[in-house]
């Protein structure tokens, strides 16, 4: 008997002892991972042939008719929603996912083609419309993976809208992404933190199935944006282009805001655990010091926050995202050519010493013994 089945039976026996359930534990067969992979591949393969026929037919018949393409895309999304609603196995759900993604692409392409490609895509309103469109799909289509991808689509639309709406005055427009995403990364981390703190109330209200995949997408998008800011920000840009002065502050602003979010979560956890005032002050001071040392690498601060949220939620997926963000953030920060080797070495070494000192104090200090 597998460990999973043993755990299920043990939990069922505990619930039966409390009177919450009756009868025998229902049988639940878990398909091997190889079978699940093959079924998923079969679903994508079937969707590929279906879409090659459908998309090819539509493009040949209406390649210059954007409205027809958009309508076809919406019809494909409706078909995917119907397949999700009827239920089915892994192959059916993957088939529906592939059809929905292709339908979204056709709907957006047809919309752009009908309104004029260059004129539309360079406006903030277009990207805001993408965000609204993906948000509507997240509400209407109940599949968890589909909601996760729709949540990522919402953040892509929001990032495009913010990037075009904020004035940056940079000749290299792609470099201004660090300025735009430097505001969105802390916002995403703050939303993920708010979900973590309110998760119990969300479950009680029956909205966990809706909000959890959106929270996953929010954290993933926030970590990705923090990594972009860490790698693209150039602290000496103002020397070469006076108009790029605020762009060179993107990583400092993002790092400072992420530090505030991390410190707020740490303080909230201390109060939830009924820690004393001395402990709260020490944790807050250590968190602010760590954030100040790593402010030039916002991805590291965001990864530390993701780790803290993962421990709070007991989520292995969030823990993996946090570890990956910290590792990639460290490598990207240390390999950046626009920082001196001395500055990078000092900040990384100081942050490591600070964390080791904090661990030693928590384990061997008087206050640490109270929580042992």
From TrEMBL:
InterPro entries on file: DUF4401 (IPR025513)
Coiled coil: none
Keyword ATP-binding: no
Organism this protein belongs to: Cupriavidus oxalaticus
Alphabetically ordered keywords of this record: Membrane, Transmembrane, Transmembrane helix
Domain (DUF4401): residue spans on this chain: 32-363
Pfam families, per the entry: DUF4401 (PF14351)
Protein name: DUF4401 domain-containing protein
UniProt keyword Plastid, yes or no: no
Lineage, top ranks: Bacteria, Pseudomonadati, Pseudomonadota, Betaproteobacteria, Burkholderiales
Transmembrane residue ranges: 38-61, 67-85, 92-112, 124-141, 148-166, 178-198, 210-229, 249-270, 282-310, 316-334, 341-362
